[in-house]
Design goal:
alpha/beta; Rossmann fold; 2 domains; seven-stranded mixed beta sheet; 11 strands; 18% strand; elongated; binds adenosine-5'-triphosphate
Length: 327
């Protein structure tokens, strides 16, 4: 690939803390290297709507600490059709954009892969999703911050749960990935954790809760990932209550507050490293790759590989440990 002059950068899919830090890093790296940068608002939708803005160093001042994304994000149905993508391509070429940096999750990567193949435009992707569910990187942007947000919430719930001897079911994000649930659950001292990756029968959960009840605990917290197979926190709470009438049960759905907030230092540094790497990889002639981090080294993985390997990053010993530490 030769002659990149203007890089287009966008965020797409669900927002995640650290996206702004990544935009800042990519914009400044590109400018430092003599490239122009065009921000694309609302992800793929902005390509179709010609929603572009020329960016300079000051465009990204004072954003490293902000959650969300200054470039906005969207889910774009039109981009799923060849006609929509053709329109998007014509628009970005008319704006002089000759390479793209996409920050998002697996849907965003799928779109980037097909778009780059169809129209030959180089694309480098950055994993930005709180779910931490992409192959080829140990961590995705936003995951660390979201997990810390959940831990803060669990700590607060623990205070009230302990005061009233209550059993709390706390539902956290994770339709297909239990990373937040497992790690926040361990860090928050949860008595049980229900994950999308592992079916837990209500009876087995009740056995665990019996142990907690018999060991005179003043509070019990069960973390429920939204994608777990029993049907969500309210359903599980009802089922448990039907068996353990003595428990005063409560449900808290943490919801979208998990997406917001100032990124952690970990996410800011990761975002900066990945934004920097994305620009350098484009200039090195790479395309259709995801930059990631593995063992504290920045790596690149072909998008096809990042998308095809649905590896579960949950370590078995951690699940075993949850039970051991709940006695
Ligand atoms: P998150 O993991 O946070 O949900 P995501 O990037 O997976 O983020 P999606 O909504 O799945 O979020 O995808 C973002 C956008 O990518 C979609 O709205 C669509 O515009 C585009 N996209 C997804 N799948 C395809 C596809 N098969 N072909 C073309 N574009 C796609």
């Amino acid at each position: 690939m030769q002659g990149i002059n203007k890089v287009g950068i966008f965020t797409s899919g669900g927002d995640a803390p650290g996206m702004n830090a990544c935009i800042r890093s990519a914009v400044r790296t590109a400018l430092h290297d003599g490239l122009s940068v065009m921000g694309i608002y609302h992800g793929y939708q902005g390509m179709i709507d010609r929603n572009f803005v020329e960016m300079n160093s000051r465009s990204v001042s004072n954003i490293i600490q902000l959650g969300g994304t200054i470039l906005k994000t969207a889910r774009c149905q039109d981009f799923q059709s060849p006609e929509g993508r053709k329109q998007a391509y014509e628009n970005i070429r008319a704006a002089g954009i000759d390479a793209l940096i996409a920050i998002g999750g697996d849907g965003t990567f799928t779109g980037a892969e097909v778009f780059s193949r169809e129209h030959g435009i180089p694309v480098v992707c950055v994993p930005g999703t709180i779910d931490n569910d992409l192959y080829g990187t140990d961590f995705t942007l936003g995951y660390d911050t979201a997990t810390n947000t959940v831990i803060e919430a669990i700590d607060k719930i623990r205070d009230t749960a302990a005061s009233h001897d209550r059993l709390f079911f706390v539902e956290v994000m994770g339709r297909d990935s239990g990373c937040i649930a497992l790690n926040a659950g361990i860090a928050g001292g949860a008595e049980a954790i229900l994950l999308p990756e592992k079916e837990t029968a209500i009876e087995a959960l009740c056995d665990q809760l019996s142990l907690a009840a018999n060991s005179n605990k003043s509070s019990t917290i069960v973390i429920v990932a939204e994608g777990e197979k029993n049907g969500g926190a309210y359903h599980v709470a009802r089922e448990v209550k039907a068996r353990f009438d003595f428990y005063d049960t409560k449900v808290t759905i943490l919801g979208h507050l998990q997406r917001g907030g100032s990124p952690s230092s970990f996410d800011r540094v990761l975002a900066s490293r990945l934004g920097f790497a994305a620009v350098r990889q484009l200039q090195a002639g790479e395309t259709r790759i995801m930059v990631g981090i593995q063992g504290n080294k920045i790596t690149s993985t072909p998008l096809t590989e990042a998308l095809s390997n649905k590896t579960v990053k949950l370590e078995k010993d951690m699940l075993e440990m949850v039970k051991v530490l709940a006695i």
